[in-house]
């Protein structure tokens, strides 16, 4: 398992750990259980998540650093709106990071790496989007095979953080048929470019892939907004 996957996965600490509280608050923000611009009172959150106040404070600081929480002098913390602009900003960064990570991978790739990518893609195609959560996990595994090898851990970890945010947001919306077709095609194009050791082509495919995914999420967010608020799950 990759170092990134270990650090960003579900923590082994107890419920009172800052990591656990952070993940629960972040998930509630993304799922809109904590609404845009809602005030985040430490005591209320500690009661909500059954923890003490210190883990909540630490979690809010981490979420502030990631852009999920806004803090204002004398007014405390509030939820940052998870809107189209939020997604756009992440995508603009990823269009720079992911092609760079891919270019470097092309310089070190071997036959075993290609075989792993082929196997990951075969699993994605076999599932064929039948389960959104499983597809997200398989798709993440596919890209991790490329990005986890990079020497710049800061860049790779930033990709992981953004990946988790976008994956959580995208769970709220269906994947259109055209986007499904594009994802499978672009993955195949990427494997072939890497196999041919064509760094320029591989980087271009990844950039197109990232832009397409971001555009799809933004379009789905717009559709949901025009259709009005959906009933929240219990």
Task: Write out the strand line-up for the largest beta sheet, numbering strands in chain order.
Answer: 1-3-2
What is the H/E order?
Answer: HHEHHEEHHHHHH
Assign a percent range to the helix content: over 70%
The total count of helices amounts to 10
Separation of termini?
Answer: 34 Å
Low-confidence stretches: 1-14
Reported for the largest beta sheet, the result is: 3 strands, antiparallel
The total count of strands amounts to 3
Structural class: mainly alpha
Content of β-strand: under 5%
Q: Shape from CA axes? A: globular
Instruction: Work out the radius of gyration.
Output: 19 Å
**Mean pLDDT over the full residue set:** 88
Describe, in plain words, how this protein is organized in 3D.
The chain is mostly helical and about 230 residues long. The protein has helices spanning about 5-10, 20-30, 40-50, 55-65, 85-110, 110-125, 130-145, 155-170, 175-195, 200-225, and strands spanning about 40, 70, 75-80. The chain starts with a helix and ends in a 7-residue tail after the last helix.
Features:
single chain; 234 residues; mainly alpha; 10 helices; 3 strands
Layout of secondary structure:
Elements: H1 3-8, H2 18-30, E1 39-40, H3 42-49, H4 53-66, E2 69-72, E3 76-79, H5 84-108, H6 111-127, H7 132-147, H8 153-170, H9 177-195, H10 199-227
Antiparallel strand pairs: 1-3, 2-3
